[in-house]
Design a protein that fits this description.
This protein is globular. The longest helix is centred in the first third of the chain and has 17 residues. It contains 10 helices and 21 strands. It has an 8-stranded mixed sheet with strand order 7-8-6-16-17-18-15-19. Strands 10-2-1-14-21-20 form a 6-stranded mixed sheet, sandwiched between helices. It has a 3-stranded antiparallel sheet with strand order 11-12-13, with no helix packed on it. It is of the alpha+beta class. A hairpin with a 5-residue loop joins β17 and β18.
Length: 392
């Protein structure tokens, strides 16, 4: 940890990948930064993620614009050197591309319509007729109607991503304090002037709420309503295999599941290989609070869906399954920017399952705002006060 340089310009609450990104960009903008987290680095949603950096699953609009911004930033970050290696090598950043497939002609027509809209927004989307699917994925099921290839989709190891961003932030003067829970918000009148932890009062010029699924609780400490709720998801990990899955592959139905408001179990398989040879199979979604109960139904549905995509998986052993909680917002947009209800409080939360891919863009936008500069994208669609009409 670097030596304290006095009162920080900004305290970031949360050492997941979104908080790490905020810290990185703020520190490299010249701000004095302190990161606090009640647990370890990447101990929440980040540590239970697949590492998706997707543009393929987003309709045109603010979230897709943020995803495209983030994609470019992650590519640039990949070239940065850390301890004699590139960031891309350290965090296992892979530009593997995504392959979205359709199970019927009707679904293929809907996918083609979405792809056309995405291309108009700057996304690369290449049609793949059914007969060409085996050329891209030789082990894919043979009864599919076709698909679209998305070369911009990438993957990284999320825990390594958060750790490296924080290492680079520390190199720029930031301090990182894991295991320090925020218990209160310091105020001077209406203005937020820092945080109270179990160990100390920590004054700061601004506070960034990047607390993931607990972001609503942090906002409430400052008297602001931000309706972030946990959405549970399971992921399966297979035994190590040769390179049997080349891309991130999923059914087009996944896009609808991500956008669903249902609290009940939603499951569309997303299958991808990793550098270590394991295959990741995700992901389910259900709103059950912070209930960590094991769900045989969720695991069964995941496995069945994965075998529908790749029949060979029926003969592959699952080594383990893990689960985590995504920070869900009712309108499926993250919360980014200054909170006018509590001046001095900024939010960088509510990304649900897209936080890994949107983290770099979120961090840069927050840092630009903290420095009173122009932002690369308008923050208005992500404004925290947009939920004022919703019940607390």
């Amino acid at each position: 940890m670097n030596e304290d340089r006095g009162t920080p310009d900004v305290v970031v609450i949360g050492a997941g990948i979104v908080g790490a990104s905020c810290a990185y960009f703020a520190a490299h903008a010249g701000l004095r930064v302190c990161v606090v987290d009640r647990g370890p680095i990447a101990g929440g949603t980040t540590g239970a993620g697949e590492g998706n950096l997707l543009v393929s699953d987003k309709e045109p609009g603010p979230e897709l614009e943020l995803a495209l911004l983030s994609s470019g930033l992650w590519r640039d970050l990949g070239d940065v050197q850390v301890a004699g290696r590139t960031v891309a090598d350290v965090i296992e950043l892979e530009a593997k591309g995504g392959l979205v497939v359709a199970s019927s002609d009707a679904t293929m027509a809907s996918l083609a319509s979405l792809a056309e809209q995405q291309r108009a927004a700057g996304v690369e989307a290449v049609p793949v007729p059914a007969g060409d699917l085996p050329r891209h994925e030789p082990n894919l099921a043979r009864d599919l109607a076709g698909g679209y290839l998305y070369p911009q989709d990438m993957q990284l190891q999320p825990m390594l991503g958060a750790a490296v961003l924080l290492r680079l932030a520390r190199a720029a003067g930031a301090t990182v304090c894991p295991g320090e829970a925020v218990t209160g918000i310091l105020r001077s009148g209406d203005r937020v002037t820092g945080v109270r932890t179990a160990a100390r009062d920590l004054p700061a010029g601004a506070v960034v709420n990047a607390a993931g699924t607990w972001a609503g609780e942090i906002a409430a400490l400052a008297g602001a309503h931000v309706p972030v709720a946990p959405r549970r998801g399971f992921i399966l990990v297979t035994e190590p295999l040769p390179r049997v899955v080349r891309h991130k592959v999923y059914f087009a139905d996944y896009v609808a599941d991500v956008a669903s408001d249902s609290a009940t179990l939603q499951a569309s398989p997303v299958v991808e290989g990793t550098r270590s040879g394991t295959v990741l199979i995700g992901a389910t979604r259900e709103r059950v609070g912070f209930d960590r109960t094991w769900s045989p139904e969720a695991v069964r549905v995941l496995a069945a869906g994965a075998m529908r995509l790749f029949p060979f998986l029926g003969d592959v052993a699952v080594l383990r399954a893990y689960r985590g909680f995504r920070p869900y917002c009712p309108d499926h947009l993250p919360v980014i920017g200054a909170d006018p209800r509590a001046p001095g409080l900024w939010h960088a939360c509510g990304h649900e399952g897209a936080g890994i891919g949107l983290s770099a863009g979120t961090g840069k936008l927050v840092a630009q705002g903290l420095c009173d500069g122009p932002t690369d994208l308008p923050l208005h669609p992500f404004r925290p006060e947009r939920f004022e009409a919703l019940p607390a």
